[in-house]
Queue: 3 jobs
Job 1
Amino acid sequence: MKEIKRTVIVDALKREDIGSEINVRGWVRTRRGNKNINFIALNDGSTINNMQIVVDLSKFSDELMRTITTGASLSVNGILTESVGSGQRVELQATEIKVYGTADPEKYPLQKKGHTMEYLREIAHLRLRTNTFGAVSRIRHNMAIAIHTFFHERGYFYFHSPIITASDCEGAGHMFQVTTQNLNDLKKTPDGKVDYSEDFFGKQANLTVSGQLEGELAAMALGKIYTFGPTFRAENSNTPRHLAEFWMIEPEVAFIGLEELMALEEEFIKYCVKWALDNCSDDLAFLNKMIDNNLIACLEAVVNTEFVHLTYTEGIKILETAISNGKKFSYPIFWGCDLASEHERYLVEEHFKKPIIMTDYPKEIKAFYMKINADGKTVQGTDVLFPQIGEIIGGSVREEDYDKLIGEIEARNIPMKDMWWYLDTRRFGTAPHAGFGLGFERLMLFVTGMQNIRDVIPFPRTPKNADF
Ligand code: 4AD
Ligand code: MG
């Protein structure tokens, strides 16, 4: 085979030099045709669009052609030609074809179109080769780039918080332990407890649920930081919106309060959604056609809408009024309750029909670090609530007053000795500050229109499932 430098298909489809011989490489999506001529749809992952390879069967052996089936990988030299068929501007008239790897049609699991999402989860090692998961993967990459670009352009520093930690930031206790102890022969202290002094870190250690506490340390030095990394929660929530391993983006900013925090949350999400509209149009068009016909309209609406600012107390009133007008919810509503996603979605999808930033929650249902309002009952927490998703961001102004913070830590029985380094921020040069956490996969759900969070991360970890 003639040596020609490879062109990736996303670039090949844009080439203007009709008549040139070029080389593309990729995997066969489909092959069709008659006894004289065949059409191979070749995809190399660089774009959702395929290169159509036109094969004059009189020029290629039956033996070679038999191996060119769905899933096989090829290198193709061919003449770039204007396409007469609809669907593509250019195609390749094959001059030489090399098969790198065959895919036995009797055994290759990705034969027909229209596999269910459930089936594709069972073959997550191959589903990346489908149009849907190719599109989701490219959009996921783009969202990561958008996030780094957003913060970099605004002077934030990317800060690496640890994955292994001894503290439970959210205080909810849903943590995975990290240990090197032999669980079949645990060392115990005289009073029967596990003896962590023998363990790798000399104390109990866990996978982090959030990088916020370390992020706050950095904000008190660098001013504006963000983290972007994996976080882990062992909550047994088998829902389409929960993962045991998910990625979170957590900016933390010194010298800002509630208004600036809310403005940052809104600007940030809009920037990411606009980035997708501007940079992922082919993939979004595909998902709009195949997954959710309202997707692009919904993304555009968010970019062009002002988010509603609503206090928790106002939200409860609206929900109570809805109930007295006949609306039924599964979970009860009362001041002090934690809103369920049915409540959040009612407010967003039915009442306001816009994203909502909800603030001023009862302190009992929020984490210890949130700034307490003058009323002594509510805190300056902010949840951003989105259509289809519910909570996409959780954030707050932080309590910067040492005594108030200690009061909350004691009231909640949080082990103080583990928190000394965090408390030092409030002892030395404390300053007002605020931050939030965006669940990366929740953003991905919104931007792709996919229905289940297991389908926006390559290899989902959920209760009873850590395959691949
Ligand atoms: O509301 P959360 O628990 O807030 C924090 O962790 C704070 N430390 C953030 C901060 O202020 N720096 O989580 C933040 C976001 C949620 O709004 C949600 O989008 C996502 O993380 N999230 C999950 N995503 C997928 N699966 C789960 N189990 C999630 N739990 C939270
Ligand atoms: Mg939350």
Job 2
Amino acid sequence: MTFPASGRLLVKLNRPAGAQTIDTNGHAMKIDNVTTTPFDGQRPGTSGLRKKVSVFRQPHYLENFIQSIFPVLEDREGATLILGGDGRYHNADAIQVILRMAAANGIARVLVGRGGILSTPAASCVIRKHRAAGGIILSASHNPGGPQGDFGVKFNIANGGPAPESVTEAIYRNTREIREYRIAVHPPVPLERPGTHALGTMTVEVIDPVADYAELMERLFDFDAIHALFNSGAFRMRFDALHAVTGPYAHAILEQRLGAPPGTVVHGTPLEDFGGGHPDPNLVYARELVDALFRADAPDFGAASDGDGDRNMILGRRCFVTPSDSLAVLAANAHLIPGYRLGLRGVARSMPTSRAVDRVAAAHGIDCYETPTGWKFFGNLLDAGRVTLCGEESFGTGSDHVREKDGLWAVLFWLNLLAVKREPVNKLLRNHWRTFGRDYYTRHDYEALAPEPAHAMLEELHKRLGTLTGRRYGERTVSFADDFAYTDPVDGSVSTGQGIRIRFDDDARIVFRLSGTGTEGATLRVYLERFEPDPAHHGQDPQRVLAGLIAAAGEIAQIQAHTGRTAPTVIT
Ligand code: VG1
Ligand code: CO
């Protein structure tokens, strides 16, 4: 069938010629074929397309990007699609647009989280469980929300994971060539209660956003043991949902199923602007939780998650567990957890993540993979059964249970571990370091830089890479410098330009890269680490231990000369 360049016509998709598509009211569904022109800058970044809300709300902007996704969907005819988001501003409107476009593009069935809500890991779980062709997750993750904030669209493939680069590039090419998009004319579908609705020939099923995910968690972890821990009277926890998507999940799982007292979960109601906060679970943006865990009457365990629920921060009483250490601790203790009692097939970490987990892998005789930043690079390793656990320094940890990093999963893993070991977090961490040594680690972010000088800084550094080896910075000499490139061991695809790595003679390391998720100017990330084998030196402040390396980083990249900044904006 042919379509005019614009104007309305009756849809006859998936139907024998002459048949009409009838909606719930018995009316033929009308479809608009809307003429459009490409927008610049619709290339997905580290994790989907992220822009200011004002950019997404321009006429046709969202529609162009969504239309560009449909051609890459495998087996689109008769396909099921999963749809939900983190509840941020514009979530509700965007969901209705996408539903109407899905109907116009021949999707058979869409499962939507009630109220348009699905955390990123829950969406991954639902895609896998219901054998969907893919999913669209509306989120800009840890970026602030609200009318002045950010919005985003992530597209996940049938394995439940973020689309790999080959797919995001295909989508990007479509956004460059788009001339029209298709959208059904239909009133909003009610999403406030579970139920089934017809949108033309397409079925919209509104599902409980928590149920499938909670059931999966119950299969992986010893809920009875965690329940007993909460009931012991000797354990208190504080979970800060930062007014983002994990609120409903944490209330349902921690308080209702696991018996944590009401009030354990704070800021548990998702708000469109996250209460004005920055839904990023780190030492800077989750300050209230950090303060609560460092007070005299602090609870035993603290945790937070980000806007879309895929990140986690782990705290003990007066103790912060770096995400890199968290991954190593989980790997070292996985056999104590029901879902992982048979051991790990292998582990993976993003390149800038500290090498703490490498030491556990070596001790256990399992493979450890180093991938570029972004969860999409773990997908093939997980699908091929080469790794069970993986993680990133950016507060992301996960396993082969889904194909996304998973905030609440990591919290439940820690809870299960604490229920088995019955010891404080700081003791557990100290013991881990005693066995494996400590990788002192920090990340310095320089946010909202002018893009041109920031890019020039990295280009210039790139040119000097060949001259760095043998140079002395303070007490260290550079032993190795390169620009990280990755060859996927499963499909052989190559990703270049993934960050500059500098290693020193004492094995200390600096990594420089530019963020692929920011929406304001450029963000430089500097990752710094140093290994300390001696337990007598394990109790120090990372910023002090790494001071020499921090100075070397400034000198090597000439950060101040290029950016005018004398200090980072965020230290984690
Ligand atoms: C950041 C993190 C990266 C993470 C990505 C998406 O990317 O560094 O590790 O995978 O965010 O996480 P970048 O390019 O800004 O460094 V999420 O929770 O924002 O989906
Ligand atoms: Co996130």
Job 3
Amino acid sequence: MKPNKEIFIEQLPKVELHAHINGSLSNETLCKLSQLKYGTDAKHTEKYHLLTKMDLIDAFEKFKYAHELTDTPEAVALATECVIRDFSDDNVVYVELRSTPRSTMKMTKDEYIMAVIDTILKMKSQLPSILVKLIVSINRRESIESAEENGSLASKYAKLHPNIVCGVDLSGDPASKKFSDFEPILAKARETGLKLALHCGEIDDQDEISAMLKFGMHRLGHGTFIKGENEEILLKNNEIALECCLTSNLLCGVVPTYSDHHFWRFYKNGHPVVICTDDFGVFSTSLSKELQIASDTFNLSSDDLIKLSRGAIDCSFASDDEKPIVHGKIDSFAKDAIGF
Ligand code: IMP
Ligand code: ZN
């Protein structure tokens, strides 16, 4: 029999704020995509065995493989649908997916983003219990021209689908181009009303972290190497929530053990912190597993976990009309969960 805490966490209405679509493809989803691309006798998924130990380079290899499979609007739609279903199966009631619009021989960036949005709209009627939003990613590795395109696409589709497209993300290899190269594009996106959820402090570059904190953002992804003065600045600015991805950081070797994770430093100081999966397919995890790890490692009670879910929706890019709906689900769960 499962321990009570595990059942509690599985049933808790959860909120996911940091999930890359192409990193959130389960092995089952990869098989489906492989069959869509290569037919039923495909052996291609053999390339994609889940590793228990990896670094950022291995992770980026896995993204390359996922990208090979999601090279048509049909495949992007299937990937998006599977990701939404997997989150919903884990009792995630609100998710902000993020993805980098990509053009291939068979798809334009517009078609990519439309495939994602159309699928989110379709899933609204099929899975009404989960509210899904989209954050458009800009990849640091791409050219500035390509980043500008993504910024413009984010603004264009936010106007067309204001209830879905809510923000812009800066991600990709943190050791490639500098933040300052993307600053004008991000500033423009912010001016048009888009929220910013930026990967920051994934490597030890205190000057860049300082520049990013000065620029400001609504939420900060990872923040693994935020130290000293920069940590003090972030802690003072209670407005910037931290998205913590425990297993992603552990498997990429940037934190030695779960108990060393910086989640605890910020959490115990009362800073807004959200537990997220990052890439549940790549790191073989789920939001329930991440909350279980947080609970076991940092001795969080059921009440603390409910508060984390409530805090996450407060930090989300949901509208003022949507937030009370999600809070309502957490409230009614909390009322029934007194026995846990
Ligand atoms: P996509 O944007 O849906 O294609 O999702 C995969 C992409 O997300 C990768 O190619 C990276 O650009 C980005 N990504 C996923 N995880 C990380 C991370 O931990 N750090 C930086 N970028 C990431
Ligand atoms: Zn990420």
